[in-house]
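tool=predict chain=A
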Amino acid sequence: MKLHELSPAPGSVTAKKRLGRGTGSGLGKTSGKGHKGQKARSGHGKGAYFEGGQLPLVRRIPKRGFTNIFRKEYALVNVSALEVFDDGATVDVFDLMKMGLVKKPLDGLKVLGNGDMTKKLTVKAAKFTRAAKEKIEAIGGKAEVV
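tool=predict ok
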């Protein structure tokens, strides 16, 4: 078989409907839309949430809570994850991104105190939990708030 011999499977491709090409075509005059009514008008299409004039679900359900536009979202990392770095290294959010431990810097890095740590590191972050700070400093490392 050659490229020029390829063709689609029989019945898988149908010709485009050619509307408004005379009464003999079977799709003349009203072009398959029937007579008058909402669906016969140009640009008819209702919205995705239209419920036939009934009060839409979006408007029936009560509003709840609010979104704080000043909320800060931190990239989180546990103390145990910092074991991948060499002893005596300085670690910040961009080093963690290179190692694949954090996807985005967001509003800064927050170090959580889950797990154990054996390497002496200088960690630069926006926030530390009390447990994380204690574990880093217990080994002789530094927890610097940036």
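The mean pLDDT is 93. Helices lie at 57-60, 93-99, 130-139.
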